[in-house]
Amino acid sequence: xxxxxxxxxxxxxxxxxxxxxxxxxxxxxxxxxxxxxxxxxxxxxxxxxxxxxxxxxxxxxxxxxxxxxxxxxxxxxxxxxxxxxxxxxxxxxxxxxxxxxxxxxxxxxxxxxxxxxxxxxxxxxxxxxxxxxxxxxxxxxxxxxxxxxxxxxxxxxxxxxxxxxxxxxxxxxxxxxxxxxxxxxxxxxxxxxxxxxxxxxxxxxxxxxxxxxxxxxxxxxxxxxxxxxxxxxxxxxxxxxxxxxxxxxxxxxxxxxxxxxxxxxxxxxxxxxxxxxxxxxxxxxxxxxxxxxxxxxxxxxxxxxxxxxxxxxxxxxxxxxxxxxxxxxxxxxxxxxxxxxxxxxxxxxxxxxxxxxxxxxxxxxxxxxxxxxxxxxxxxxxxxxxxxxxxxxxxxxxxxx
Length: 401
Known about the structure:
Elements: H1 2-13, H2 17-34, E1 39-50, E2 58-70, E3 73-77, H3 89-93, H4 104-110, E4 116-125, E5 128-137, E6 144-148, E7 151-164, E8 170-178, E9 186-200, E10 203-217, E11 222-234, E12 258-259, E13 267-272, E14 276-277, E15 286-291, E16 295-297, E17 300-303, E18 308-319, E19 322-334, E20 337-347, E21 357-360, E22 365-369, E23 374-375, E24 380-385, E25 399-400
Parallel strand pairs: 12-20
Antiparallel strand pairs: 1-2, 1-11, 2-3, 4-5, 5-7, 6-7, 6-25, 7-8, 8-9, 9-10, 10-11, 13-15, 13-24, 14-23, 15-18, 16-17, 18-19, 19-20, 19-22, 20-24, 21-22
């Protein structure tokens, strides 16, 4: 019946079937995008760089974030942070980074009224026949923002997408910047996303599975971000889950934990309760540990033994047999108390392996010489509490939509 109705519509209207198909694709994708629940996924970004005249990309670092689609907006958080922040991804991460590949690009191209479309024909991929359309948005009608450090400008964009002729769902979307403002040190930008159906709760939804963003500067250096989305689940910003026993009638509810402010310079003796991989160490990877003894300040115990601490990897770089690792602790808890803090490594005991040495510099950066695969569970480290906020990271070429 659907096929007969489709053929009857073509006959009655006399419209080009490619135009009608495009209308069906846009209608279907509007249903998909507007019917999407609030959800969150783990986003893993592998950042690589290829210098001008070089033949291959070299891994710069790996970043792990939580990304949420909430009321049509993309929100980001570090894993384990407990809440999403309404700010640009570049403010969290710095360096060459982009957003829009989670939902923004698809909404701009397939739900917007500005693109013009041209049918290209059928392409084969994975045993499926996909219909390819090209589109174009000139700069004067565009909302595509490119940023280079603190400088930003609006660029036009073009690209193509492939859609299934049976389901009318998009399988691939490409976005290519053009007419880039001369005030930016960006020569080219291209992002390509792949879509698959994934389970969220009790239903399947069409979600981005991966994307590849490539930014080329005016000197010919290419920065590439390979993004994978995984562990997608429904997100509710106000829901909480508790596994504690329900309070009995007459019970006095426990007092909320007291917020404790730790003094600048306090030293915490911490034992890692989770290993930290080093080949690579993803930026944003949670770091967990426990205090080995009481942390005292001016004769007073500020943090007791066995307090739990949580933090993250802030930076990882590797050159030959030298690894640079930046870590920070951001949360500390013990019975009845809680502290938000920033603590950086102060001392790292000798690593009992031949050919391996490690030290901590005055800025809290760990320098490891030799090929070490991980800082193992049980590794002991001294951390220094710092009252000052972490220094801002540079933003050398992010894009946003």
